[in-house]
Amino acid sequence: MRHNLLWLLVGCYGLAAVWPGLGVALRGWNGAVARFGHVPLSSLVLLATLLFVGALLTDFEQTRYAARHPIALVSSLAAVWVGPALLVLVVGQCLPSVVAGHPTAGLMVSFALVASMPVANSSVGWTHSAGGNLGLALALVVVTILLSPWITPGLLALLGASLGRNQASCEELVHQFSGFFFIVWVLLPTLAGLALRQVLSVEQLEAKRSPLALVSAAALLTLNYTNSVLALPKAGNLPVPLLLLTTSLAASLAVIGVALGWALARFFRLRPETRTALMFGLSMKHTGLALILAATALAHDPIAILLIILATLMQHVVAAIVQRSQAHTAL
């Protein structure tokens, strides 16, 4: 399933475009209360599952490599947010407020939201497949998720202020991200997974690794499907220039991450396996969390949801290209 995740994502998007009914029904299972911003309970459960399983499968023994190279680790953590944030600022200044007769306010808010996200758990899977440094990959995921309650809201507010008329939407996202929502649906599942890992033996974890990985992949695919029904059925009505722009923006976040990872590895003269982990870690954002936030605050703007959907797809496409290039280099 991991090796075919890219094609499974494409299949989920195709299903959402031609058969959105099931996704709408799943989103209708809404037990969330006002303080969660009326986010569908199904989406929250899927997010919690992703975070819990990701933390449970985190091997802290392998993160010791990152602790032995603190300067490289701190620089990588900064690059997770600084590089995409600078890209948002540049695009915000260059992009006109209207493209092909369609306003781009929601598009830029969504772009800023993805740029503010922590590293995705799926970067570890790609690092493992490419023979990269798992210790650094795991450290980037865990540390960025734990830091995101403080960094993500502040960065979103900063980017919102730079985007002018889009500031109100960014402030709404900051409000949703902060406080009780994040503690219950992000921090608690992560900490619960880390705690359970300390209780289970190595043999028990290894016996459950494959089923847990399957559950995590299924949760990711379902989350993308249920949120895709908000945008993909309407995508055919959008102007072609706007669709091309959205795809380009989605791809640019992954491309700049790969470039930063390569540059940092070259600057610090890191080993090839560490360079691989950096390129995957810095190019893959936790779009599952971004989808949940956007599906509430930006549900009225299909192009905003579409950008996050395409960002999920494009970061896996770029990861596949990186993996192939790394294999070719090794030969």
Give a summary of the structure in a few sentences.
The chain is mainly α and 331 residues long.
Primary descriptors:
331 residues; mainly alpha; Na+/H+ antiporter like fold; two-stranded antiparallel sheet; 16 helices; 78% helix
Helix/strand class:
mainly alpha
Q: β content, as a range?
A: under 5%
End-to-end distance, in Å? 26 Å
Number of helices: 16
Task: Report low-confidence residues grouped into runs of 5 or more.
Answer: 31-35
Q: Just give the CATH class.
A: Mainly Alpha
How many structural domains can be distinguished in the coordinates?
Answer: 1
Provide the spatial order of strands within the biggest beta sheet: 1-2
Q: Work out the radius of gyration.
A: 19 Å
- Helix proportion of residues, in percent? over 70%
Number of strands: 2
CATH architecture: Up-down Bundle
Largest sheet: 2 strands, antiparallel
Overall pLDDT score = 85
What letter string, H or E per element, gives the SSE order?
HHHHHEEHHHHHHHHHHH
CATH topology: Na+/H+ antiporter like fold
Shape: globular
